Each structure stands twice: as structure tokens, then as C-alpha cells.
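Lab channel / #folding
Pinned by the channel admin:
"Please post every new chain as: sequence first, then the C-alpha cells as a reply. Keep commentary short and put observations after the output so the thread stays searchable."

First post following the new format, from NK:
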Amino acid sequence: MNIVVNGQKRALVAPVTVAALLDELGMAGKRVAVEVNQEIVPRSRHQEFQLNESDRVEVVFAIGGG
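Reply from TO:
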């Protein structure tokens, strides 16, 4: 299965969840926001949200400040 992550093509073995992708990217447990095909995927759905062929995924770090 081929997807695009932050503008870079990436080949994965299907099926893959958002949580599994974050683990593969070394971002599991970190404060990140995930968007799939221009829609935010809430953290509560990362374990169940399945990625599909040609999905466009954006992962950004959440930065706090004040």
C-alpha cells in the first residue's frame, strides 16, 4: 500500500492504522496532530482509523506555549 506522509511517498504493508504508522515513524506517545486527506483524526481514533491506498497524511507536533 502506498501513502504520502508529510509530502513523502511511503510504502506500507496493509492494513495500517494511524497508531501503527505513528509507531513506525517513532512518534508513538508524542503530542502530535494527525490529518488524513485534510480531515483531523482525533487521538481517540488513532488505534482504529485504517489508512487506505493513496491517503495523504500530515503529522505535526503539538507545541505548547504561552
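NK: DSSP finds one helix and seven strands in the chain.
TO: also worth noting, The mean pLDDT is 93.
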